[in-house]
Each structure stands twice: as C-alpha cells, then as structure tokens.
Amino acid sequence: MNQPKRKTELRRDAGGRAAHDVGGLDFGPIDRTEHDLALWEKRVDAMLVLLTGPKKGAFKVDALRRVIEDYGQQQYDSTAYYEKWIRAIRNLLVEQEVLTRAEIESKVAAVEAAMRAAGRELVGGSVPWDTMESPI
Known about the structure:
By secondary structure, this protein is mainly α. The chain has a domain at 39-117: Orthogonal Bundle (Cyclin A, domain 1), CATH 1.10.472. It is built from five helices and no strands. Helix 1 packs parallel to helix 4 (81-95) and helix 2 packs across helix 4. The chain is globular, with a radius of gyration of 16 Å.
C-alpha cells in the first residue's frame, strides 16, 4: 500500500494558509444551536469508529485528517462536516485496499436501484473520487 503524495493546496487570499486552515477567517455567524444528528451522520460516525478501532483498524484517524486536509478550497468550503468524513472514508478504503473502487460503485448502484424500486426519492448526485475534482 503506497500512501499518496500530499496535495495540500493553499487557500486563496489567506496569507499562505492551507485550504483547511479556516480558523479566524470570516465565514459569517456560526450556528451554535444544538441539533440532533441525522441518521446518516450517526452511521458515518459509527463507521469511523469501527474502521479505526484499536485492534485491526483499516486506517488511522490521522489518515482521515490527511485526506480531508488535501481537499481543495472550493471542495473544502462546499462540503459539510460529515460529508467530508464519508468521502474520506470511501477514498481510504480504496487506498488501503480494503475494497476496490469497482466494489464500492457496484454496491452504491445496487442500493440506489433498491431505493428507487421502493419508491424512495434520491437526493444529491455522484461524488467525485479525486479530492481535487469539483465538489458534489
């Protein structure tokens, strides 16, 4: 397993900061209200716990941070917190050779087909694989 070379981009007009280094920048008011996590967010959190477990974890939480920190500015800014996590988990599962890209794409297609067959409306679209591609 070869760890890919870091691709950390600098944030435009931020004095040499990396794209993920947003502390102190003006992004408007922060919503500080408490809210329950959506079911999918709870599932993402559970997957991360299982995949980074102390026994035989698929990867370390530091790897998740590395992948997220390598997102470009546009992608980092336009992707929600748990969306960053699930995308990084997916990419790390392939990078660490736990699953192949084809296996993941096949399962996603099967789940989407089952949901459509059950009359469920799907929201969103495909998520690019390369962290440097356009956001969702």
